Amino acid sequence: MRRSSYLVLAATLVFLLAVDDSLAKPRGSSGARRGGPPAAGRGSVQRPAAGGRPSPVQRPAAGQHTGPVRQPGPPRAGSQPGRRPGNYTRPGNRPTPGNRPAPGSRPTPGSRPTPGQLQTHLNLPGLGGGGSLHGYQNRAAISRHNLNRHWAQAAHHRPFTAAWYAGHPGAWRVRHPWAVAGWVTLAAWVGVNADPVSYGYSGYGDSGAYEQGDAAYEEQVEQASELATAGQADEMDHAEWLPLGVFAMLPEGQSQANAVVQLAISQEGIIKGSYYDVLTNADQPLSGSIDRDTQRAAWSLDANKAVVYETGLENLTRDEAPLLVHFNASQTRKWLMVRMKEDAADEK
Fold first, then answer.
1. 317: which residues sit within 8 A by CB, 6+ positions away?
2. Closest to 276 measured CA to CA, from 133, 158, 196, 163
3. Which residue, among 336, 315, 334, has the nearest Cα to 202 in the 3D structure?
4. Are residues 224 and 296 in contact, defined by beta-carbon separation less than 8 angstroms?
5. Angstrom distances, CA of residue 277 to CA of 116, 258, 264, 274, 311
6. In principle, which of 25, 251, 315, 318 could form an S-S bond with 311, CB 3.0–4.6 Å?
């Protein structure tokens, strides 16, 4: 009994040893163990050891690669272009920090070009200066914008409206003060049977100034003063007036108007209206007249006859037009008249 037990134990040990030996061998024909290093000489690749790899200094630079270079692919359908410039086609002549001008060599504010020089260099329409149509329109648009913004933010009412007249009961008033009169209507109203005469005052130069000393100039100033005085001396009760509209008046080269006038004219050629100071919210009456032969119009404030405003009759029908301001008969400057609209939403 004991011997048979030994035989069974010995047979079990032999079987276990055989199974262990079979599990230790790979299933392929190779005698190497699974997961071990490949046998030498059977198509395996020998990788370089750590000491045989090239160092960063010995590696080729970006432009020295000998392998294939990836080229831009074809553009996608309906998308961005595919032939974008690579690193080697971008401009390389940009100034380096060392080649850029130092702060001390940059143009100072005094040597930088003025807006007028830039305007001339870029061939842009002017905001002031000269009598060009573009210059008048640009300055007029800015002036309208500035005044409308001022009236929208200020506590005062827009002038020559019902609310404004309520706060200025002594102001001279006409029906429909913001109305516009065309040349045909104006000429028929005052009895002018001729084509309109254009007064652009180009002879006053870019500065808009004409100094005393010229005989023709002195005669012109005297005639304008007489026209203004004739309107102030008129005591007739004119039943009907033709409104000419509301105009902002601003000096040459500026786009901010501090004076606004409302003008009307009688069939006899007498001019009446109101002068409104935008800054002080004060109004003053004005008077003047026209010369039918020369088609000149002039007026002055009833309280200040030394300053005379003069323009052409046809200029009073335009949206933007020049006028002359004679100061104390010693100096004349060219200003700009800008027609205003009763409703700010109608301004262009």
1. 180, 181, 182, 183, 186, 244
2. 158
3. 334
4. yes
5. 30, 6, 18, 10, 20
6. 315
